[in-house]
Design brief:
The chain is mostly beta strands.
């Protein structure tokens, strides 16, 4: 589980937008990338991110 304080300071490394916690991933609402959380640690590497389809 990621603390609220950590979540408040995390930002997408691509577009610098604040990320949101959804399930076991961090989601960037601006560039639609999702970053994994492994063993409770957010992996904020562009190479590890998956691109999501934008919601319509």
């Amino acid at each position: 589980m990621i603390s609220k304080e950590l979540l408040e300071i995390l930002a997408c490394p691509v577009c610098k937008e604040a990320v949101k916690l959804e399930s076991e991933r961090l989601i960037c609402p601006k560039c639609h990338r999702k970053y994994p959380i492994k063993d409770g640690i957010p992996v904020m590497l562009v190479e590890e991110a998956e691109e999501l389809e934008p919601k319509k």
